[in-house]
Amino acid sequence: MDYINAIGRRKAAVARVYVSEGSGKIVINKREIERYFPSSILQYIVKQPLLKLEVAEKYDIKINLRGGGFKGQSEAARLAIARALIKINPEDKPALRAEGFVTRDPRVVERKKPGRPKARKRFQFSKR
């Protein structure tokens, strides 16, 4: 097995994931996961599909992340990892779906409208 690739998106973040047989090393943009995501919560979000299937020590994962903030990037990586694991073993899909790791979260920022300060906010109304 060479590697399995998958893509995950969340908000403005895009994650390209390459999964290969290995020892459980996760590299994001050529940096260790601990250096890229110093927050243990974000590290946990990325590893959730692996921990659910108990295969965290079985695969090496290389992730290319672009766009968005760190929360969106971690959730995009989670989706991409889940998709790659399903490509490797389709029987895992129901377990990952039950946890909500397979569903693409469609919520994105609403565009700014012309003549307004933000998407829905209006300028202060003055009666006189």
TrEMBL record:
<dbReference type="InterPro" id="IPR014721">
    <property type="entry name" value="Ribsml_uS5_D2-typ_fold_subgr"/>
</dbReference>
<keyword id="KW-0689">Ribosomal protein</keyword>
<protein>
    <recommendedName>
        <fullName>Small ribosomal subunit protein uS9</fullName>
    </recommendedName>
</protein>
<dbReference type="Pfam" id="PF00380">
    <property type="entry name" value="Ribosomal_S9"/>
</dbReference>
<dbReference type="InterPro" id="IPR020568">
    <property type="entry name" value="Ribosomal_Su5_D2-typ_SF"/>
</dbReference>
<dbReference type="InterPro" id="IPR020574">
    <property type="entry name" value="Ribosomal_uS9_CS"/>
</dbReference>
<dbReference type="GO" id="GO:0003735">
    <property type="term" value="F:structural constituent of ribosome"/>
</dbReference>
<dbReference type="GO" id="GO:0006412">
    <property type="term" value="P:translation"/>
</dbReference>
<feature type="compositionally biased region" description="Basic residues">
    <location>
        <begin position="113"/>
        <end position="128"/>
    </location>
</feature>
<dbReference type="InterPro" id="IPR000754">
    <property type="entry name" value="Ribosomal_uS9"/>
</dbReference>
<dbReference type="GO" id="GO:0022627">
    <property type="term" value="C:cytosolic small ribosomal subunit"/>
</dbReference>
<feature type="region of interest" description="Disordered">
    <location>
        <begin position="107"/>
        <end position="128"/>
    </location>
</feature>
<dbReference type="InterPro" id="IPR023035">
    <property type="entry name" value="Ribosomal_uS9_bac/plastid"/>
</dbReference>
<dbReference type="GO" id="GO:0003723">
    <property type="term" value="F:RNA binding"/>
</dbReference>
<keyword id="KW-0687">Ribonucleoprotein</keyword>
<comment type="similarity">
    <text>Belongs to the universal ribosomal protein uS9 family.</text>
</comment>
